[in-house]
Write a structure and sequence with these properties.
Length: 326
């Protein structure tokens, strides 16, 4: 038997006090150990284990990676996470080998998401889950090299918007109907939370399709249009003097944070994000700053103008309209 000190032993082998050797290696996130009498036996066993491990690493696919993380990383949020993992699998394909994924592949994934109409904030959630997959595989020694996943840099006004493609997942995580109704109302009207909680049946005109919001009893109210799904909610609740009589802000805040986490949304989504989302959607669909100001009840036009962002494609569309008008 060779006489070797601990410092000379290769990684994955250690010597016990009785002179035997333990081979200790992690494969597919599972620790495998074996005790051998001699160092030669331990070295041969280590080489065989490493060979098997390398073969597994070479063949490990994105489909296997997603399954692995669903079992080990996201047990508590499997329902919410499927939206993101399905997007990853759809683009890369479940048979794509992890060790063949390049930065160009990740850039193409981002472009594919944009072409599908996803907002950058939603794409970043996809990228966050992709990064989690790669980091977990690296941590568990299933891959040997870190794969960088860089998020898209967002403008400050885009960071806390709930995208329409994520809204359904988010609403499904809200257990109480009264909370879900309030969230939909806020998303579709852009009311401040205290304005919604103070709504009474005399503030509602279902025939004309408006809510009337008073800053105080002496002010002229602002009229906020209602969507079809808000009409359904109001019709159901208008029998009460107060539409949301038992909802308290603190409980609503806690519920929202839990739903955001369960849906896999960015942590900076807050109660105010519901109003912010509504006004951003108005701007995205062509509303100018004056319209947003009247809808939201802003006191300064500059506040409303922050929602108006013209990107190069918007400018090109206007140029096309000018060409057609000539």
């Amino acid at each position: 038997m060779r006489n070797a000190g601990k410092s000379k032993l290769p990684k994955g082998i250690r010597q016990k006090k009785n002179g035997s050797y333990i081979v200790d290696i992690t494969i597919e996130g599972k620790r495998k150990t074996k005790t051998l009498k001699t160092l030669d036996e331990a070295l041969n066993t280590l080489r065989e284990m490493q060979k098997n491990s390398d073969e597994i690493k070479q063949d490990f696919t994105i489909g296997q990676a997603v399954d692995y993380c669903l079992k080990t990383q996201w047990q508590s949020f499997c329902g919410a996470i499927h939206y993101h993992t399905n997007a990853i699998l759809k683009f890369f394909g479940k048979d794509k080998k992890i060790n063949t994924i390049t930065q160009m592949d990740i850039s193409n994934f981002i472009n594919s998401c944009r072409n599908a109409g996803l907002q950058d904030s939603s794409i970043n959630v996809h990228l966050s889950k992709l990064a989690t997959i790669f980091n977990r595989l690296l941590e568990d020694e299933i891959i040997d090299k870190k794969i960088k996943v860089k998020k898209i840099k967002l403008r400050s006004k885009e960071k806390n918007i709930i995208s329409q493609e994520m809204e359904e997942v988010f609403l499904s995580k809200i257990k109480k109907e009264v909370h879900r109704d309030l969230v939909v109302l806020l998303l579709d009207t852009g009311l401040r939370v205290n304005e919604a909680l103070n709504l009474r049946k005399e503030h509602i005109d279902l025939q004309e399709g408006f809510l009337y919001i008073y800053a105080n009893k002496t002010d002229t109210p602002r009229a906020v249009p209602i969507t079809s799904r808000v009409r359904e909610i109001l019709s159901k609740r208008i029998g009460n003097a107060d539409l949301f009589p038992r909802v308290r802000y603190n409980a609503f805040y806690t519920m929202l944070k839990n739903a955001v986490k369960a849906a896999g949304l960015p942590e900076d989504i807050t109660v105010h994000s519901l109003r912010h989302t509504c006004l951003s959607r108005l701007a995205k669909n062509g509303a100018n700053a004056s319209l947003i100001m009247a809808w939201a009840g802003h006191k300064k036009l500059s506040t409303s103008q922050q929602y108006i962002h013209m990107n190069p494609q918007d400018l090109k569309n206007f140029a096309n309209k000018l060409d057609n008008a000539i």
